[in-house]
Amino acid sequence: MPGSISVSEQTPGRWVARCKFRDQDGVTRPIRKHGPTKTGARNALNEAISDRQRAGRQRAGELTPGSTFADAAVLFLARVASRRADSTHALYEFHLRNTILPAIGALRLRECTVGRIDAFLAALESRYAANTRRKLRSIVSGVLQHAVLAEAIPHNPVRDLDRIEQSNGARKTKPRGLTIVERQRFLKWLDGSSDDEDERRKQLVAQRADLPDLVRYMLGTGLRIGEALASRPCDVNLAGIDLDVAGGRRTIPVVAMAGNMTWVKGKGLVRHEGKSASALRLIPLPNFTATMLRRRLSAELAPEDPLFPAAGRDGRLTFRYPANVRRSLRSVRDEVELGWMTPHTWRRTYATILDDEISFTDRMKADLLGQAKFLKDEYVSRGELHPEAAVVLDNALNPPTEAK
User: Cα angle at 8 between 4 and 12, to 5 degrees?
Assistant: First the structure.
């Protein structure tokens, strides 16, 4: 901080302005600047003081009201990288680079007013769905909250904005799972060997992509695609857990959801823990899924190998990219008249079967799906194992054996 400024004339036409300045290191040092006039010398000294203050803040990594939104975003991302998962950092960086910074990155922090931020978010309405706009708003709020903590702005303007609602005229897509006819037709096609050459070629594409087993695994567990591809033999307990269920005591095989596969810029495919605390869970396995896993685990797979591996360039087994599974599915789904189907459809199918079972509470469904809430339930404990789900899924998904 500067002390009082004194200005004196050294020689005719040459003035000097002096003061003492306390630097960021706590040491007080003298500063002086010359000018042809008294005012010129004072202005030169004031400019030198400003430069010294700005340099000190930059050395300390601080923000000022004159810093840009982009400057704050860099520091915000560094904080996210140190506290959050790689996938979260990659998502925030993607949205900042492609949508937020091109629009408001050059604004000074003091210019980030309620009106300007509201205008930015309103301009996104024609381009993005409400959920995406909420995510973008959350990122903008995070950047500006970092600026508040750095005392560059007095408050976060995003907090004064209205809630983001669905656009007028926009129709919310209704979640859709596979009906019993659709899923049986799809599984039969995946296992088949058609006489038609083109159809047979597509069946081979699906089988080489491990879709028959992967689809059954996801239908029987309700896992997200990244969670399913992160599964390893060591996560599976086919010996089971002894539990009291309706009708007596049963041994229920389970799988632990203990990871997620995601692509991170600069790192490639990364396996990390689930997206939230509720995502880490034990899932009871229906018989048709357990039978499939027993067959797979009879192969030579190490405990830490991927359960649904891809072959690496060096011949070693590697975890499969979720994007590659989606690509393989897109190439074959029209063959069974399910052009709208995605891997998340299999999770919705699992959820729909659970929802149809009236004995299951919303808390039980939320536990099994690894969500913070199911429907409107959000204030109860999480993490219990519900073995009844295995029986329900077997009845719904395991087709009856045809009589010989």
Answer: 160
Q: Which of 228, 329, 216 is nearest to 271 (CA)?
A: 228
**CA gap 265, 281 in Å, rounded:** 28
Token output for 88: 């979260």
Rounded to whole angstroms, how far apart are CA atoms 87 and 259?
A: 12
Tell the residue number behind the tokens 């750095």, with chain if given: 150
Cα atoms in the 13 Å half-sphere on the side-chain side of 294? 11
C-alpha separations of 226 from 40, 56, 218, 365, 383 in Å: 65, 45, 11, 20, 20
Per-residue pLDDT tens over the stretch 216-261: 999 999 999 999 999 999 999 999 888 776 667 778 899 998 888 8
Q: Which two tokens stand for residue 348?
A: 């919705």
Report whether 387 contacts 284 (CB < 8 A): yes
Kindly provide the b/e burial profile for residues 47-58, where b requires at least 16 CB atoms within 10 angstroms of the residue's own CB. ebbeebbeeebe
Residue among 350, 313, 311, 344 at smallest CA distance from 329 = 344
Q: Which tokens go with 323?
A: 């994007």
Contact 6, 17 (CB under 8 A): yes
**CATH numbers and ranges of domains, the chain:** 6-59 (no CATH), 69-160 (1.10.150.130), 180-397 (1.10.443)
Amino acid at 6: S
Structure tokens at 349: 């199918």
Give residue for tokens 């500067």: 2
Q: Phi and psi of 154, rounded to 5°?
A: -75, -30
Write the pLDDT tens digit of every residue in 270-299: 888 765 555 678 899 999 999 999 999 987
Residue 381 CA to residue 312 CA, distance in Å, equals: 41
CA dist., res. 61 & res. 48, Å (int): 20
Q: Which two tokens stand for residue 131?
A: 């959920």
Q: Select from 143, 149, 142, 152 the least CA-distant residue to 54.
A: 152
Residue the block writes with tokens 């599964």: 231
Contact in structure between 116 and 106 (CB atoms under 8 Å): no
The count of residues in the chain is 404
Each residue of 335-383: pLDDT tens digit?
889 999 999 999 888 888 887 776 777 777 777 777 766 543 332 345 5
Which structure tokens are listed for 180? 């019993």
8 Å CB contact between 191 and 215: no
